[in-house]
Each structure stands twice: as structure tokens, then as C-alpha cells.
């Protein structure tokens, strides 16, 4: 049978593992959000270029 302190230590270790996994997941999500923000900025820039190009063609006609 485990002692009281061994049981406490095991619970503490499990809590640390869960914390580290949650932290790693959080960092992964933050990195993904930053990537999506960069993709959105890139798409907006492409959209503006295409709209400017279309407006230029309309003014020529």
C-alpha cells in the first residue's frame, strides 16, 4: 500500500503532466492563430490587388 505522501506525489506528477500538455496545446493553438492571421492579411492584400486590377480594366473600357 502506498503511503500518503507517495499518493500525493503521484497526483502532483499527474497534475504537472496535464499542465504541460495543456500548455503545449495552448502554444500550438496560438501558433495556428498567428498563421491564420497572416494568411488572412495575405488574402486581403491579394483581394485588393485584384480589385485594383479590375478597376483599372473597367476604366480603360
Automatic annotation (TrEMBL):
> What superkingdom heads the lineage?
Eukaryota
Question: What stretch or stretches form a coiled coil here?
Answer: 19-53
Key words, A-Z: Coiled coil
Q: State if Coiled coil is listed as a keyword.
A: yes
The protein, known as: Transposase
Organism annotation: Ascaris lumbricoides
Amino acid at each position: 500500500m502506498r503511503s500518503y505522501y507517495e499518493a500525493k506525489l503521484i497526483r502532483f506528477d499527474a497534475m504537472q503532466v496535464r499542465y504541460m500538455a495543456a500548455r503545449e496545446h495552448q502554444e500550438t493553438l496560438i501558433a495556428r492563430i498567428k498563421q491564420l492571421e497572416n494568411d488572412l492579411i495575405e488574402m486581403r492584400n491579394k483581394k485588393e490587388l485584384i480589385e485594383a486590377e479590375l478597376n483599372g480594366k473597367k476604366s480603360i473600357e
